[in-house]
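## tool: complex_structure
## caller: assistant
## args:
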Amino acid sequence: MEYFELLLLGLLVACGAATCLTKNLLSAVVIFMAYSLVMSILWAILRAPDLAVTEAAVGAGISSLLLFLTLKKLRDLRRKAQEDGTEKES
Amino acid sequence: MERKRSLKERLRDWDADAFDLTNEIAGPMHPAPAALPERPKDAEPEDALAAEDFRVLRRAYPILAALLGLMTVVFLLVAVFDLPPFGAAGTPTDNEVALRYVRDGMTETGAVNLVAGVILDYRAFDTLGESHVLFTALVAVLILLLKAEDPAIDDEGTLTLRQDRIVTTAASILVPIIVLFGLYVILNGHLGPGGGFSGGAIIGAGLILYAVAFGFSRLETKLNLGSFRIICLAALWFYSLSKCYSFFCGANGLHTVFSPGTPGRILSAGLILPLNAAVGIVVACTMYGLFSLFQRGKI
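## result:
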């Protein structure tokens, strides 16, 4: 059991670092989702099932959904701007 | 050469040179708002009387703000100095509170789940504040970002999600289970892990999945902005009214009115079950409301 916890903790640190270091935003959101899932398992191991349920629902579910939606919207706007040819040189 | 500008002018257009995304994003579909008309210097306001009132208020604002800040500082300092020293042996919080919660929590609140008992009975006032924080944040977002009710604009911003057969089939199987599980988590909040917030989030996620798979048209008839406002306000009002009696009872529960019942039964624990339901409704509506407003380009 202790090894399992250590494995999860290592995974947590790795996921946290990878979220910050990933260049691709979509991958970052997916990794963040994985981070939340690992965190929710850890809450369950730490005997806080209330927090585990909340973390799984909010962290892995809804916040990732909203981030995905934001990414989709950004991509849509970028595509629209390219089609219109209004994109300025940055 | 640019003439030297006063501090006031600098403060007014501090971000005048900042990169403006409005034209980039908006494109021809949402024409950027026309630039604000340049205000002439020393222009006489049209309504001189109102301007006079405003000037008086303007002068009073900094003083009132300073007074308010000072009062807050004084209140907080008084409260801090009233606390027992850190780590003192006789501190009641170190010795009595946690022990009492663990020992008497079940008989006093009737909740088998001690967390629910603490959150929604002993510390129900804190939870009330938290629900209001969520609601206030949403209201602030709506005030800042909600576009005008203009049917011409509404459909332009909607992101069309592709209707996928896999998503539709999976959603038709999963959505009832997810919503049912959310209801279970809410209604069993006083018996097992869970409660209003997590159950509401689960139901909100289920509604979002339904909307993604089948479109908004079916949910729209029941859950639109008007009904969302009514539902949220009713739930918050119910919460506030049902907990405000604690103020007049010195934070003692009215056990003859709201009986703790037999711990372990579904209809027990006094007000915890309806309060959980109220919190769950607010959270589910907020989650789904944010998603749908964002998705449909109304924010």
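## assistant note: The interface with chain A takes residues 23-25, 27-29, 113, 115, 159, 185, 192-195, 197-198, 201-202, 204-205, 208, 287, 290-291, 294-295 of chain B (CB under 8 Å). The two ends of chain B are 42 Å apart (CA to CA). Handing back to user.
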